[in-house]
Amino acid sequence: MSKIKLNKVELKNVKNVGVLVAEKVDNRKNNPGRPVNKKSARYIRLQKQAFYANVNDRFKKGNQFEINGQKYNYKHNNTGELGCIVNDISGYVCNVSYIGRTKVQGYSFVLGKKVSIELNLKTLKFVS
């Protein structure tokens, strides 16, 4: 049997062979390299969508909102159905029949008649 001896060969000027690539630590991957055009139609549309989603989430979570000086909040049912709007002073205010992206519809009965209620989520003032 013959023994084979391999010589150690050093590679020079070869990229990515045995060399760790340094990570970029200056957050360049989040910078597209140009300023954001805040007047573009796309940017304005995305900002509106983000605002609508934020307001809708705040309503569904039950954050307090103010209408005509009174504070209300939404309570959902645990059964998966839509809930109701309640007030701290009198309790129950109305049932919620629809929650959309920017609109909430509800109803209540006053003296045997059905009263429809519609809230515009874009104009609600949430209490922080």
Give a description of the structure.
With 128 residues, the chain is α+β, with helices and mostly antiparallel strands. It is 16% helix and 31% strand. The protein contains 1 helix and 7 strands; from the N terminus they run αβββββββ. It has one helix spanning 41-61; strands spanning 65-67, 70-75, 84-87, 91-99, 103-110, 113-120, 125-126. It has a 7-stranded antiparallel sheet. Strand 5 (103-110) and strand 6 form a beta hairpin. The longest helix has 21 residues, at 41-61. The mean pLDDT is 84.
Radius of gyration: 30 Å
Q: Mind summarizing the main beta sheet?
A: 7 strands, antiparallel
The secondary-structure element order is HEEEEEEE
Structural class: alpha+beta
How would you write the strand order of the largest sheet?
Answer: 6-5-4-3-2-1-7
Indicate the low-confidence ranges by residue numbers.
Answer: none
**Fraction in beta strands:** 25-35%
Measured as a percent range, the helix fraction is 10-25%
- Count of beta strands: 7
Average pLDDT figure: 84
**Helix count from the secondary structure assignment:** 1
Gap between N and C termini, in Å?
Answer: 84 Å
Molecular shape: elongated
Could you give a quick summary of the protein structure above?
The protein has 128 residues and is α+β, with helices and mostly antiparallel strands. It is 16% helix and 31% strand. A hairpin with an 8-residue loop joins strand 2 and strand 3 (84-87).
